[in-house]
Design brief:
Blueprint: H1 4-22, H2 42-47, H3 74-78, E1 85-87, E2 90-91, H4 94-105, H5 112-122, E3 132-135, H6 140-146, H7 150-162, E4 171-173, H8 185-192, E5 196-198, E6 210-218, H9 222-233, E7 238-246
Length: 250
Amino acid sequence: MPETAPQEHFLMKAARHAANLVLPARCPVSGDIVEKQGMLSSSVWSEMEFIAAPYCHHCGIPFEYAAQPGETCLACRERPPVYTSARAPLKYNDASSRLIMGFKHADKMFAVKTITPLLVKAGADFWGDVGLIIPVPLHRWRLISRRYNQAAVMAFDLAKAVNIPVLVDGLKRVRATPSQGHKKAGERRKNVKGAFALNPVYEGKLRDKRIVLVDDVLTTGATADECADVLLQAGAAAVHVLAVARAVKS
């Protein structure tokens, strides 16, 4: 058995590679055949709402009017986020939701090849001085039921793309929390209060580091703020949030 196991492992890898060569690339949202892995079909692409300047310098929410560089939105002026800044390439709508939910819950792991280039472009202002990438963690019970943390998958692939180290276990979710869906901003903050902690393995190793925190969706920013607070208390110099999509009031 010990002698045949490596051969079986090699054959399994070879079979997966052959399948990748034979099976056509498909859009992770519609399932339509596309030119190469990671591409969106033209119909899905047209449904995506991309975020571009001008946007709030702090939270990244798009402005509906011409704004000066460095300008912040009213919400950030009234209640500044804990994190340093946030960016997302997409508005959260039906199309981006289907992309994220398929990746998150339907085992469409190949969707990361669609997501990573979007994150690289959206985070262009960060890469010059960022020292670490860290994903928002799942609680262990949710991780067991879901089998993988989509934020960790994104963070790992993103780290390779921008050649920046990643700590996939830099943060720990120390308290299970109910879903944030349908909760108001204050309820979301209360829901995640104290839910995250620094992995003790990295105690003292984040000092003066500029960090990109990766998540799938940015809504009120409650989760991002709670994670950023932990990282800043651990000595991080800045925490930039990078999400696939963010909620934007219409």
